[in-house]
Automatic annotation (TrEMBL):
The organism of origin for this protein: Kitasatospora paracochleata
Composition-biased stretches (Basic and acidic residues): 1-11
InterPro entries, A to Z: DinB/YfiT-like, MST-like
Gene3D superfamilies recorded: dinb family like domain
SUPFAM superfamilies given in the database record: DinB/YfiT-like putative metalloenzymes (SSF109854)
Domain of life: Bacteria
Name of this protein: Damage-inducible protein DinB
Signal peptide positions on this chain: none
Region of interest: Disordered: 1-38
Amino acid sequence: MNVNDRPERWTEATVHPDMWADPDRDPRNSEGPSPEGELATLRDFLTNYRLTLRMKCEGLDAEQLARRSVPPSTMSLLGLVRHLAEVERDWRNWITDGEPLPKLYGKRDADFDGAVGDPALVDAAFADLEREQAATDAELARHGDPGARVGRERIAVRELLVHRVDEYARHCGHADLLRECVDGRVGQ
């Protein structure tokens, strides 16, 4: 697609045409009171941003996920998935005492540079992300005190959770723009 060829903006939402999905079908919306306490609140925000990223990738094929929609950037939706898998591993390395795990994708920027439109690579990227998220979540779940300092870096659990929320939030903003460039679907 030529940079000047812009897809028409659209949404699946019928109730609010500027939203990604109707509120009653949005998996991020929950009825009832907000989470109780600092850790539960941070985990809830993280969960919602993770769901947002998945929603932004839904319904696209491997080529669309790998499309670098804003040249000359190497960023793509698939690159974001791979990048977030890589940073989940990095964060886990910060909070564990053992030897650091190696990079998932090799050299710097390989998470974005290696994001190509191959269905097997897409499946592997989402599997990597799920595995790395689960492993970092499990490591952090061992610590109930948000002020606990953990790992070689002696980083506070709170700091790591806020950093994760920040990283996902920033990249969900990128995902909004990337998705709109791919097929015109608007963010929410």
